[in-house]
Amino acid sequence: MYDELKFDNCNHSKDPMVGCALEGATGVLAGIKDISIVIHSPQGCSSTVSAAYDVHEIDFTKRKVACTRLFETDVVMGASSKLKNLIKEADSKFKTRAIFVVGTCAADIIGEDIEGLCRNIQPQINAKLIPLMAGGFRGNLYDGIELGLNALFPFIRRQEEKIPDSVNLIAPQANLNPTWWADLKWVRETLEKIGIKVQAVLPHDTSLEELDNAGLASANILLSHDAGYKFGLKMQEVHDIPLILSDIPLPIGLKNTARWLRAVGNYFGVEEKVEAIIKDGEDMAIDVLRRRGLMMIPRYRNCRVAVSADATMGIGLTRMLFEELEMIPELLLFRSPVSDSQLLLENELIDMGISPKVVFSADGYQIKQSLSENCVDAVFGSSWEYYLAEELGIKFVFDVFNPTNRQNYLNRAYFGYEGMLNFLENVANDWEMALRSKHINWEEYS
Amino acid sequence: MVGIANESVVFFGHLSELYQLAKEGKIETKLQGSHTRPCKFWTAMKILSGIKNTIVIAHGPSGCAFGVKQAYKLTNCRNSGSPYESIITTNIDEKAIVYGGEKELKGAILEVDKKYKPDVIFVATSCATGIIGDYVDAIVNKIKPKINAEIMAIHCEGFAGEYRSGFDLVFRQIVQLMDKPDSESRSRLANSVNIVGGKMGPERTEIETDVKELRRLIESMGASVNAVIAGNCSLEEIKQAPSVAVNCTLCLDLGYAIGREMLDQFNTPLNSTILPYGISATERWLREAAKHLHLENEAEELIKREYGAIRIEFEEAKKYLAGKLAIVEGHDAIKSLSIAHMLERDFGMRAVIYNFHPWSTQARETSIDYLLETGLDPEILITKGTLAFGKYEAMVQTENELMEYLGDLNPETTVYFGSSMSFPNIPVVDLNAILNRPRFGYRGALKVAKCICTALEYSFRPRSWVTKKMVFPENSGLCSAQSLTPKLAQDLPDCTVYAGRERGKCMMS
């Protein structure tokens, strides 16, 4: 199935590849329109909130963030009145319908009663106040996404009736595609094509009305294998909305896309429509590759590769690389703990009959060690892996995930049929560039 | 005061008057809740990231280390192809918050020493470990004999001080790594200088940077540079740093802390002047350095040679500019003051600094004291947008107030020194653009002169409606950091962000 690698000297020290809970939690809030964030923290944590807004590519003028800028005296004496005043100021200046009051490490540890404070001053505030403790020590980015999603429950109204053929899409941002919005768009458009309405995206560019009506959806689809699973289960429990498709890979590569579409088709009884999309998509993808990508075949066949990604991309990609491109996934390096997708990964590897070496919650050191100790010809990763692999003399490094050095003016999905081509186009270009060696003494050949 | 409606103006007067008002508490000097800067942890990390073969252990949750890694370490790789450098977190969780994180820290130090074999380990405290009171100093002292690396604790909790206090703290502390000079080391480095006040790490390799220009000038004078501290320097260079002939500040504001400390501790002379923008500032910088290097004659020859090389174009530009009004964007306080100094002294212009937040009068007190002493006292204009709640670097309001102010000004007699993402109807000179470098030294003066000439030469061309709409679309405006190239996007935490670009950003690296 897989061989989980273990490392010396890694029990207490970590070179982190993902941020903390604060980034995850505020990354959820940043996807909701017409809200503001009051962050109860020293000023540096504001950069983390900015990063969360960047994840959704939100215009600076549409960011409504205020920070209490805690200093030593606040930590010693408490800073409730500072927070109270800032909430009032944010309410009168931002004029948003809801304010999330977020406590970070400092406020969390000194025991600021954000919940009580919000309750007490709510009558004086126009916006709905939602307290959220998101100290970085509460976990990693993915734990933070769960915290943030949990904070959305007060906005989702309980509905007895459900709208047939409608879904909510959960955690689209927990995805390493540098332009993940395109994956979300592909899912939305594909569902609409087969008559499934997207009730709410939880969250990206989501209005409070959409959030309010999220309880009307007849199913929830998770767009990540890294975060949102617990929220999906809780939605099932609280709002009686089943979580579907969480036991198969996301639509990456031809086979996974077909599986995902067929699962949607079976659930909603639109098998015929789905089959038509699959046929057109596969024909198109293969036709394009026949005309423009034939060189893939000799280049990629039996090339030993490392995939350094999240579970969202990594699990789906493994099958595409192995079955469709005939590569050999030697190393799977997951930035996330893959805790909720462990079974899925195991089933996939058993089904394919391969036993790659695997690292969960891989940090920078472990990635470098794994690459140096295992024989791989190529690496699928981000600009991090690009620099690491370059140092180790690995020539083929595909810079396809976040953070990337690649410029994308147009959003490009990795999900679906065009998504596969987008991904392979990036790989093909990086491969081509890697062959332009600076080390050849060309004068010898003149 | 021309052009601008009085109700939009918060302050219009000279720097010295603003400074006085701030001291007397008659003008608000606190940053608004929406005007955040990096915290002490971030700024400390920015300096530590400029020391090679060191590992920083950020004792706290993973987010603090991860942010620094994305912002500084990745940027270092991107700038220069320098090797990937790790930054370590002890990754403390709720349990450690309750029971203390000392075990995690001890373990991390031992592991880091074994697996990375660094020259130095810096243990940096975060808010979380600062509050729970982990006894970091004791751990560090106790573990010293058990590891090969040198080790130092840096108490830089985010809440423990204003933004710039992290810079000062680390600069003062790394002096403890230095060796006391002796006659042998002094004589070996008698012809060398340190450039102090650098940060972050290797510079961009593909452009002529300001540091490279200073290095070239020093070497052209017949001296050499021992180290840029802390801009990609090694422990070895730091150790011998006090033995040089003189420390030259790269940035007056940042370099002063370490220069002063080295002067007090080791008697290493300090050449601390205004940022060497323009000719008069550069001359002062060079002559002061030459005094300690005993290269006064060489410096004078160099000055003559360098000026000779730019004279024609420089004087041509000067003709255009003498007597004209310069509006200088003031987000980066020290840089805007240095540019104002250059425009007044070298080009004979009248400079007005726009959007200078009164907070800077306290945050940059030492530097402002110095500048006022040198007789630099430019006019400052502060409009309501600067002090409004909402991110002032990213507010359409300040842009509108600027337009209002410029409304009645003659485009033929006014030049705007600021971001090309502002769209006044007067020539714009953007000294932060990557191709407009170096800005220091004589070549910098020439570069500035050329930029001005180009801006004037093409002032007949209206600003692009496309770029204007990109920055200021209807009902919104000012894009996000995603709009930056990956190379620049990670630079954000230590700059005043305007449309995701480094408007007013200190571009020392």
What is Rg of chain B? 23 Å
By DSSP, the count of extended strands of chain B is 14
Shape of chain A: globular
User: Would you tell me the overall average pLDDT of chain B?
Assistant: 87
Biggest interface goes to: A-B, 75 and 86 residues
Distance between the termini of chain B: 37 Å
**With helices defined by DSSP (H or I, 4 residues minimum), what is the helix count of chain A?**
18
Query: Strand arrangement, largest sheet of chain A?
Result: 1-12-11-10-13-14
Largest sheet of chain B: 6 strands, mixed
- Helix/strand structural class of chain A: alpha/beta
Helix content of chain A: 40-55%
Q: Percent of residues of chain B in helical segments?
A: 40-55%
Broad structural category of chain B: alpha/beta
| Count of strand segments of chain A | 14
Q: Report the mean per-residue pLDDT of chain A as an integer.
A: 95
Flag low-confidence runs of chain A.
Answer: none
User: Low-confidence stretches of chain B at least 5 residues in length (pLDDT < 50)?
Assistant: 489-509
Organism (chain B): Methanosarcina vacuolata Z-761
Protein name (chain B): Nitrogenase vanadium-cofactor synthesis protein VnfE
Domain Nitrogenase/oxidoreductase component (chain B): 39-456
Pfam family, one (chain B): Oxidored_nitro
Would you mind describing this structure in some detail?
Chain A has 446 residues and is α/β, with parallel strands linked by helices. Helix content of chain A is 45%, strand content 15%. Chain A is built from 18 helices and 14 strands. The longest helix of chain A has 22 residues, at 271-292. The relative contact order of chain A is 0.11. With 509 residues, chain B is an alpha/beta fold. Chain B has three domains: 9-31 and 310-458; 40-161, Rossmann fold, CATH 3.40.50; 183-306, Nitrogenase molybdenum iron protein domain (Rossmann fold). Chain B is 46% helix and 12% strand. A six-stranded mixed β-sheet of chain B has the order 1-12-11-10-13-14. Mean pLDDT of chain B is 87; it is low at 489-509. Chains A and B meet through helix 1, helix 2, strand 3, helix 3 and helix 4 of A and helix 2, helix 3, strand 3, helix 4 and helix 5 of B.
